Amino acid sequence: MEIPRIVGAGLVVIGAGIGIGRIGGSAMDAIARQPEATGKIQTAMLIAAALIEGIGFAAIFAS
Amino acid sequence: MVFSKKPFEYLFVVLVAFFSLTSNANSTNTIEVTKKGNTVENNSEMKVLSKDEKKDEERKEFIQHHLLDSHDFHIFSYGKNAEHNVGFPLPVILWDNGLHVFSSSKFEHGEKVAEDGGNYYKISHHDGKIYKTDSNGKITENTKGKIQNEKPLDFSITKSFFMIFIVSVLMFLLFAGLGKSYKKNGSIAKGVGRFFEPIIIYIRDEIAIPNIGEAHYRKYMSFLLTIFFFIWFSNIFGLTPLGVNITGNLAITGALALMTYFITTFTAKKYYWKHIFWMPGVPVLMKFVLAPIELLGTIIKPFSLMIRLYANMLAGHVVLMSLIALMYKADSVVGSPLAFLLSFVLTLLEVLVALLQAYIFTMLAALYFGAASEEHHHEEAH
C-alpha cells in the first residue's frame, strides 16, 4: 500500500503547485493593472497561497 | 549605532546567512570524522555496504539527528575522532515512580546507560527519547521497529526547551527595555527601537486593524506581537550555528496553534457562533449540512496553522542540510562550489522564509480573531 499513498501525495502536491502558481500569476496581472493596490493584493495572495500550501503539507505528512 | 544606514542591514543579512552555513558545514564534516571512528562497530551489525552507500547512510542519519530534539547542547566536535566536544549537558528530569533528576552528561551523548535511584535509562538512537532499560541498556524493538521498552514521563530541559527559554528572556528584556526607553527619550525610539518600531506599527496598522477592526484590535495586540516575534526569533535562531530547530517541532507549533484556538473560542461573540451553528442566508436544510462542516472548520484552522509552520521550517532545514551534504557528496572542484553557492542562496531565502512564516502565522491568527470578534455584518467596513 506504499505506492498508491505516495502517488496520491504527489498528485496533491502537483495540484497545490498549480494552485499557488495560478494565485501568483493572477496577483501579477492584478498588480500590473493596478500598481497602487500592490500591498492589498500581496496580502490576499499570501493568505490564499498559505492556505493551499497547508493542504500540500498535510498530504505529504499523511503519505 | 546607526540603524538607518543601509550597509548595516546588508551586513546583518550576510552575517546571518553565512553563520548557518559555517555551522552546518562544520557539523557535516565532524560527523564524517566521528563515523570513521565507528566503522568497525557499524560493519558488524549492518549489511555490507559499499563505501559510498555507507557515507550516504551517515549523511541521512546526521540530517535526521539534526531535526530531532536532544538532551544535551552539542555545538561541535573536533579532534581526529571527534573526541573533543564543545557544548554543555542539560538537566534530565524524569517521573518514574518518583522524581529522577540528573545531568545528561551521564548518557555521554547517548552512548552510555545512565543509572539513577536503581533505575537504568538509555537514549534511543532512533527517536532521541529516553527509555527505561536493564543495566546493559538493551532496547528491544518489535518487527515494525517500534520500541517496546517502558518510557518514563520526561520533563527534561531539552535543547528546544532551553532555546525557548532563551528566546523568551531575550524578548522580555528587549521589549521591556524598549518600553522603558520611550519614557526616557520622550516617546522617540532609540537604538534597536528604531528597527523594531516600524515592525510593531506594521503589525498594528496592516495586520491587526484591517483584520480585526478598529473596535476590538487592542485586546489581541499583545498576543499577535508576542507570537510574531517569538516565531521570527525562533526561526532566526534556527539558522544560527547553534543548530536548534525550535519551530520545526510539532509540539511547539501545536502549542502556538492551541493558544490561537483558545483565544478564538473564548473571545468569540454571538455572531461567530450563529455563523457556525445556524448560518444565516441559506435554506434551512443547508443549515443542517453546514453546521458540522463549520464546526470541523474551527479545528482545522488552528491545525493548518500548526502544520504550515512546522512543515515549512522542517522542509527548509532538510533542504539546506541536504544541499550541504551534496557539497561533500559531489567532492569535486566544480560540484562542491556549486552546491556551496546554492546553499548560500538558499540560506538567504530561508532568512526571508523565517520572516514570512511569522507574518503568515500572525496574519491568519488575526483573521481568525477578526471572525470571532465580529459583531454584525460589516456594511461600513473596508
Helices and strands in order:
The complex is a heterodimer of chains A (63) and B (382).
Chain A: H1 2-33, H2 38-62
Chain B: H1 6-45, H2 51-67, E1 72-78, E2 84-89, E3 91-95, E4 99-103, E5 114-116, E6 119-123, E7 130-133, E8 153-154, H3 159-184, H4 193-212, H5 217-238, H6 250-266, H7 270-277, H8 284-330, H9 335-373
Antiparallel strand pairs in B: 1-2, 3-4, 3-8, 5-6, 6-7
Helix pairs in contact in B: 1-2, 1-8, 1-9, 2-8, 3-5, 4-5, 4-9, 5-9, 6-8, 6-9, 8-9
Q: Features of this protein?
A:
heterodimer; A: 63 residues; mainly alpha; F1FO ATP Synthase; 2 helices; 90% helix; elongated; B: 382 residues; 2 domains; three-stranded antiparallel beta sheet
Overview of this protein structure:
- Chain A: Residues 8-58 form the V-ATPase proteolipid subunit C-like domain.
- Chain A: Keywords: ATP synthesis, Cell membrane, CF(0), Hydrogen ion transport, Ion transport, Lipid-binding, Membrane, Transmembrane, Transmembrane helix, Transport.
- The complex is a heterodimer of chains A (63) and B (382).
- Chain A contains two helices and no strands.
- Chain A is mainly α and 63 residues long.
- Chain A has a single domain (13-62), classed as Up-down Bundle (F1FO ATP Synthase), CATH 1.20.20.
- In chain A, helix 1 (2-33) packs antiparallel against helix 2 (38-62).
- The radius of gyration of chain A is 15 Å and the shape is elongated.
- The model of chain B is unreliable at 21-46 (pLDDT under 50).
- By secondary structure, chain B is mainly alpha-helical.
- A three-stranded antiparallel sheet of chain B has the order 4-3-8, with no helix packed on it. Chain B has a three-stranded antiparallel sheet with strand order 5-6-7, with no helix packed on it.
- Chain B folds into two domains: 91-156, no CATH class; 161-373, no CATH class.
- In chain B, a hairpin with a 5-residue loop joins strand 1 and strand 2 (84-89).
- Classes of the chains: A mainly alpha (63), B mainly alpha (382).
- Chain A binds chain B through residues 39, 43, 46-47, 50-51, 53-55, 57-58, 60-61, and chain B through 206, 304, 307-308, 311-312, 315, 356, 359-360, 363-364, 367.
